[in-house]
Amino acid sequence: MKQILLAVDDSPAGLAAARVAVELAAGWAGQIRAVHVLVDGVLEAALEQEASSAGVHGRRDLGAHAALKYVGDLAGRAGVPIETMALEGEPARRILEQAEAWPADLIVLGGAGRGRIGEPYVGSAVSRVLEFADAPVLVVPPS
């Protein structure tokens, strides 16, 4: 496995997924494409309008770039080639598009914690990636 697609955000599970992806890529002499998908701006626009405070989009973008910088720095310290990109749209669809276009040998994502006791909860986007991905998918729990 040489090409790892990492879907990263600033959640504990997303950052744990970044660490796992870098470790795997370093061990396999592979490379990473890290993507952060910004959900389309409909909710943020509504919140911004209701809150009468500008900057929701800017803070959202800063969070995305901070997560991508974190994983870029992590990969750089490990000597792993990495490409980072912020995308916009429906997360599962954009992750699946990237996995096919690149093409990824492995997709690494963060899980969302737990649902009911004893059952893992991965969320709708991760569930959709698991269902429709052509490549193997590794879901990393929060550390």
Structural summary, described in words:
α1 links the parallel β1 and β2 (31-38). The chain has a 5-stranded parallel beta sheet with strand order 3-2-1-4-5, with helices on both faces. The protein is globular, with a radius of gyration of 15 Å. α1 runs parallel beside α3 and α4 packs parallel to α5 (123-132). The longest helix is centred in the middle third of the chain and has 23 residues, at 56-78. The protein is of the alpha/beta class. The protein has a single domain, classed as 3-Layer(aba) Sandwich (Rossmann fold). It has 5 helices and 5 strands.
The CATH architecture term is 3-Layer(aba) Sandwich
Under CATH, the topology can be stated as Rossmann fold
**Residue-averaged pLDDT, rounded?**
86
H/E element string?
Answer: EHEHHEHEHE
Global Rg: 15 Å
* CATH class descriptor name: Alpha Beta
Helical run tally: 5
In terms of per-residue confidence, which ranges show pLDDT below 50 for 5 or more consecutive residues? Answer: none
Strand line-up of the largest beta sheet: 3-2-1-4-5
CATH H level: which superfamily?
HUPs
Termini separation (Å)?
A: 24 Å
Q: How many β strands by DSSP?
A: 5
Instruction: Specify the helix fraction band.
Output: 40-55%
Give the count of structural domains.
Answer: 1
Inertia-based shape: globular
- The amount of beta strand, in percent, is 15-25%
How is the biggest beta sheet arranged?
A: 5 strands, parallel
Category by helix and strand content: alpha/beta
